[in-house]
Structures are given as C-alpha cells and as structure tokens.
Design a protein that fits this description.
The radius of gyration is 26 Å and the shape is extended. It starts with a helix and ends with a helix. The chain has 213 residues and is α+β, with helices and mostly antiparallel strands. The strands form two sheets. A five-stranded mixed sheet has the order 1-4-5-6-7, with helices on both faces. It has two domains: 55 residues; 140 residues, no CATH class. The chain has six helices and seven strands, in the order ααβββββαββααα.
Length: 213
C-alpha cells in the first residue's frame, strides 16, 4: 500500500512538472509538442494495425510484407491478364527468398478444399505472368488460429488448374447452363447473391423450425 501511494505521488509530481515546463514555452512550441505527440500516437496505432493484420494473415517475421488486403499503407495489388481471362486480388502477398508469394486467408475453414487450392494456383499463375517470376509455392491460412499450409506450385497442379479453366471456358463459349446447387446458409451470405441466377431461398429461423417439426 505504501509503495502504491509512493508511485502515485511520483506520477502526480511528474505531471505537475510537465505542466510547469509547458507553461514556460511559447505558443508555437506548445503546438509543436502537441502535434508531435499526436504523430507518435498515430504512427503507433498504424504499426499495431499492421502487426495485427500480419498475424491474422499468418505472416511470420522473416517474411517481407508486400501487400495485405485491408491494409492502409501496403495494399494488395489486383492482377489482371486479359489473354488468360484471369483476374484476382490475393488476401496478402509476401516476399520470401526473392519470390512473391500469394497468401489466401480462410478464417472459417478447418480443412483444405480443392476450390481453395485452385484459387491460390490462379494467384500464383497471375503473379508469374504479371511479375515475370513464378512463385514456387503459396500459403493457405485456415481457421481462427491462422494455421499456415504451404501449397507447392508444381507442374501437375498447374495442369490440373488448366483443365478446370478449359472446362469453364467451354461452358462460356457454348453458352451452356451450369447447374448449381447452392447451400442455403452460404447462399444467404454470398456477396454476389443479388446478381446470381442460381440463388436459393434464404433460410429463416421459422423455416428451419418448420422443417424440424
């Protein structure tokens, strides 16, 4: 208790001396001190924000951050290649051993799905054709614990992706209708729902209860 009172007394004295020092300064000096303090606070806030984004993206300290989606200073680049008919923006791009590495973040996923691997392979292909150097791998970040999984950019995987893209182009060129079976829960949260012709009905709590009974 005595130590706490002593520390509080020292803090009060420090604040008192600070105000006495400020009182001795002219107006311009006081404004400069205030602006400097605000600048330090803002920079500290930005650094904390970047650190959190890097942690959420599963980026380790040895990796150099090139861009993070949602970042204020280092935003991710949107890659577009008209000849391939591909476009995309990775959640993050980092640099490791001189290579640009795409990072895709799936905070609600616990296991790898083929569509996620295909998406990451598309980013690796876009970086290769747009930046002139092929990424040897990419990262999937899964779950709330940011589990990092390395996906190798092999010839076999790129051939698999090419087959998927060729099938998609075939549907578009032949104007074939693609049969979709949207999941009601995922469909309700889909960002392109309004422009989707295959959207399903939105399940409400009452409809779910009706199905149970």
């Amino acid at each position: 208790m005595y130590l706490l009172k002593a520390e509080l007394h020292d803090a009060v004295r420090s604040v008192k001396f600070l105000f006495e020092d400020l009182a001795k300064l002219d107006t311009d000096s006081i404004i400069f001190v205030i602006l400097l303090s605000i600048t330090v606070i803002v920079v500290d806030g930005v650094l904390l924000s970047i650190t959190k984004l890097k942690k959420d993206a599963g980026i380790k300290s040895r990796s150099k951050t090139v861009g993070i989606d949602g970042g204020q200073t280092a935003k991710t680049k949107e890659y577009i290649h008209e000849e391939l008919g591909l476009a995309g923006r990775p959640d993050a791009v980092i640099e490791e051993d001189g290579f640009l590495i795409p990072v895709e973040i799936k905070p609600l996923q616990k296991k790898i799905h083929e569509r996620q691997v295909a998406q990451l392979l598309v980013y690796m292909k876009l970086i290769e054709v747009c930046e002139g150097r092929r990424p040897p791998y990419g990262y999937l970040i899964l779950g709330r614990q940011s589990k990092r999984i390395k996906i190798e950019n092999t010839e076999e995987k790129q051939l698999w992706l090419a087959g998927i893209l060729a099938e998609m182009r075939g549907f578009l060129e032949q104007n074939k209708k693609i049969k979709a079976s949207p999941h009601p829960t995922k469909c309700a949260k889909c960002p392109v729902r309004e422009s989707c012709t295959a959207k399903g009905p939105i399940e409400t709590r009452s409809s779910q209860e009706a199905q149970i009974h």
